[in-house]
Amino acid sequence: MRVSLFVTCLADQIWPAAATGAVDVLRAVGCSVAFDERQVCCGQPAFNTGYRPEARRVARRLVEVLESSDADAIVSPSGSCTAMLHHYEQLFDDPGWQARARAVAQRTHELSCFLVNHLGVEDVGASFRGRLTWHDACHGLRDLGIKGEPRRLLRRVRGAELVELPLPSAETCCGFGGTFSVKYPEISVAILDEKVDAIERAGVDAVVSGDVSCLMQIGGRLSRRGSAVRALHLAEVLASRS
Amino acid sequence: MSFDQSARAALADGQLRGALRQATTLFGERRRAAMATLPDWEAARDRARAIKDETLLHLDRYLEEFTANAERAGARVHWARDAAEACAIIGDLAERRGARTVVKSKSMASEEIHLNAALARRGIEPVETDLGEYIIQLAGETPSHIVVPAIHKTKDQIGALFAVRLGIEPSGDVAVLTAAARQALRRRFAEADLGVSGVNFAVAETGTILILENEGNARLTTSLPRTHVALMGIEKVIPRFADLEVFLQLLPRSGTGQTLTAYQSLLTGAKRRPEDEGPAELHIVLLDNGRSRMLAAPVTRQSLACIRCGACLNACPVYRQIGGHAYGSVYPGPIGAVLTPQLFGMAKASHLPFASSLCGACRDVCPVKIDIPALLLHLRAEVVAQGAGQGRFVERLAFRVYAAVMARPRVYEWAMRIARVLHITPPLRAWTRWRDLRPLAPRSFREEWRAGLGRETDPSLARVPRARSG
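Above: the input entities. Below: the structure tokens describing the complete assembly.
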């Protein structure tokens, strides 16, 4: 299976371990991985803040890059940016661009979905010592319906114990929300603190998620609070051989 | 107070946050349990939405059908373009009947048009009879939730309020407080000259209105006084009597987690023979107040599918933290953030579409599948396109630069490289005051890729992946 990586700008610049981890895992399960260096951002920051012409400009660029790939699938270590591709139909007014966006979105999969649903793989040969909990990133959970996939992958990681946060904590937003996190920082952090409290009460070594944006938010607060709990991307855990 | 200030005040109010957390969690749990009693929740949602979509596409026709059938049954139907007209219609009706006291059952539309103030200006005393609304009225406040108006108050706060306003011994006992309210309200029912109610659904086919409630106060409001005035937004109409079935399954479950409310009053026309029950006169006021504007486009039209269950408020992480008053609108929470700018104009509410993390919990719980995040995004784009709100100059510039950089990979890469070398961090005090900011990685993914990661190895050789800490 030939896979083209849609890295996302946050993973590229801030959390490259999510992307290198994704490459390692994909190769470990027998995929060949390509990466088109012309890709940049998906346009979500502009789209979510109401700047549609700006978002369209960036989105058109990404569609051109991704559609030029002859890979069997496009895979991304982000549910949020993958979901953004599905929103392109909402963003574009032009039917031609809508069709091109739809075609790209259909070929693009979030990492855990791709592994479990398309390759039928749950055990990627990873080992990681510690208690983990999973944070459902909102766009993955609610836009793409990702729920069981990452949990099934994590349960097969040798040495790892998956602990669920009590409802509704696991499924509650971390309060990031893109520019929301800086437009309304107090509200964002109030939401975040409920999440971080639940994580700390769970007595885990790490909180794992499928989106760098949530990890920046949760990890940033954990470290500010002096917590020993680490924030890790799913791909980091799946690529781990410790 | 601005939204920012009110939100900050709410966040600093421990009692408020405790009350909110407890109530919204409880309602969420009850809703989930009630949902499970319905064999096919998803199918019910789809059916309900299809009925709403059909109605909204032909709203003019269904409203005329409803009007004709309601009037045939003896009701009088009034059309109000806006809040002022609706208040004038109801005020005139009350005045002409020499009313001094008006009892009211729960009606968000009456809150929307500020009916109580309008009646008071004419020297008519409005008395709220829904327990939550009564508490709010005694406290001189406004509702902070669509279904649970006093959700922000604790039992002890209500006990203290009743002690002052009703002259009872301070108590935190719900039974004692409820009995005190009931006793006070019975007197007011007896002396009321006119009753004002809301409407949950209006059936075009029969001219019937349906009112759901749990306390029996709506039944008294609509049957004891000689005149009953029912106020409804024009979106409350549904085509057929049989359509009620699906909405009766969805609304109580979504709103209060009940399989059915304690009372369902189906009212068709006024009493015609002396031996009939009910009020001598029934007036139904159809309120537009900005609603027909939303019909134009599918994305905004879906706002009118709302059945006011309040489930999106209980599920919203923002609402759960700051409560309803911070929104500064009769309609708070996610649905309020989309209704308020559409009903009352963007100028007053351009900030509300941004007061959301777009998590989508509201869309998940909505019994009629309103895509609230899509509406929020649509309204955000409108705000930016209209140049509404303040302080957008820097933001506009930032996104222009963003688009210019992000559409050009080479520029992007150089910009990031420079930022990395010079350790440039964005001026994000709003972030760093509470959270550590993860710095740019020493090496970007694309640099790692070029430095060797990109050299495809035979998968069977199984390179040892590197574990990197977070």
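Note for the figure: Strands of chain B lie at 76-80, 101-104, 125-128, 194-197, 201-203, 208-213, 227-233, 237-238, 263-268, 281-287.
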